[in-house]
Amino acid sequence: MSAQPEPRRTIDVRGLLVGLLAAAVFVGCLAVVVVNQQTVGWPNLAAMLGALAALIAMLALYNRRFR
User: Fold this and answer.
1) d(Cα 47, Cα 57) in Å, to the nearest integer?
2) What is the rounded CA–CA span in Å between residue 35 and residue 46?
3) What are the extents of the domains in the chain?
């Protein structure tokens, strides 16, 4: 009897790239919030609100798959 070789696992390159991009955006937005939190001014507040909006949008896109 000949042994059947195990099927090769394929890597989902698109899913991997999307995950890496999402992680980079998350870390970037978090860094914007932390850095701008230490300063005072309207431009810094706008940057924090933009980063917060991006984080909420990422959360909404993630939760959309599991509706």
Assistant:
1) 15
2) 13
3) 26-64
The residue type found at 61 is L
* AA identity, residue 24: A
Render each residue's pLDDT in the chain as its tens digit; 67 residues: 567 778 788 888 998 999 999 999 999 999 999 999 998 999 999 999 999 999 999 999 999 988 8
Provide the token pair at 64.
């959309």
What is the per-residue pLDDT for 2?
66
What is the Cα–Cα distance from 43 to 11, expressed in whole angstroms?
Answer: 42
56: enclosing H helix or E strand: helix 42-64
